[in-house]
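Protein 1 of 2
SEQ + STRUCT:
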Amino acid sequence: MQRPSRLIHASPSRNVIVEIKNALKIGEPVAGEKLRHSGKIFDVFSPISSPHVAVEPQI
């Protein structure tokens, strides 16, 4: 489970764009501040040196 480095943007479609330290695969879980499962990755973009992912939050 990956913990995001920094929140970049919350989209109108209720998805969250975050910067991460390591590139991950689509469908992998993402943890929030208290290391609880917060959502799953559904898109990876930006350069490998500074990857960003779109996370579909689990409510």
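Protein 2 of 2
SEQ + STRUCT:
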Amino acid sequence: MTPCPCHSLPRAPAPRAEGCAPCRLARQERKIGRGRALLPSTISHQPSTINHSSTISHQPSAILQPSTINHQPFFNHQPFFPALCALAAFLLGTVPAIADTAERVETFGRGPVQMTVSVRPARIEPHRDALLVLRAVVPRRVEVELPVSLADRLQGFELRGVIESDPVERQGKIEHEWRLLLTPLVAREYRLAPFPVRYTDRNRDPPVSDWFPTRPILFDFDAPPASDEGIAPAFDPVRVWPGPRTWALYGAVALAIGMALFLLRRLFRKAGRAIRRWRMAPRERALAELADLLAKDLIASGQIKMFYLELTGVVRRYIERAHKIRAPEQTTQEFLEAASRSPRFRPDALAKLKDFLEAADMVKFAAWRPPEEDIRQAVATARSYIEADAAPAQQEPEDGHV
């Protein structure tokens, strides 16, 4: 242990600071005092009482360490500064509220009724709603009544809603209040027309009922400009063309509509042709079917069997329509047997019909390929049979008519 140069006391070696802990603290306090002489400090400058006895304990203490000195700003320790901030915030927050509470008040009345009409804001602004408050103060046992609706009394406003508060008693009188939410419209003036206020005074015997009108109230407002001179649109109109997807959608819709129209046209044409043929006589209908068969040109495409099937079908359908015989549903042998028993078929026509059908059966069932001359002869046989068979049927009505 070496003696302390300040107090000649034994101390432990200190590589960076000379003297004991009280001496170091005193030096730090002097340094801080010189740097912050103009500011009140929170450091407690209590005199150091040093006992020059051998009983001094040099144990380290937390309150003697330099890190425990509180270097806080000045305004955090002034008692009036938080109150000043709160007052400033209150004033800044209430300035808009004070501006919004500006209202216009009109007072009138008769007898025991005192009527107050107030509107907020005092000057009508087209971009914000207005609150119209009707307040009636009457003595006890006095009933007051307003019109059921005041919408027809308002000019330049749209009535959005009405709230009627419950009567409240204040200082021995009853207060009635109605709140009307108004939306300003585009108008030349904003006005509340007179409306009747009815009341009944039951303090008298007998009760007295009366009414009085209110005064008209014309509200101030910011008038719009008289003309639109000098007012130009912010942007010129720009044509926006559809995008590729929209054009593709338009094309698909147009194609679908075109296909639907095409199919409907074909369907209607086919249905019309079928109706016209259904109305034809058996001869004209059979000859038309024969012309349609030749127009298909099945022989040139090698469909000889299909050609003979449709050719015999034309003849069989004609016989069914003309003679009421189910020829399309019968075999050739069954049809010839039924035709031989019918007086409608002449023997020579029946013989030609038999040769025609048997030759067609050879092509249809025996895979026989007839020469072109036989094909032309089969077509001629079918046409001559239809025309020859239909001739007597056309002459019978004429003979009967004569």
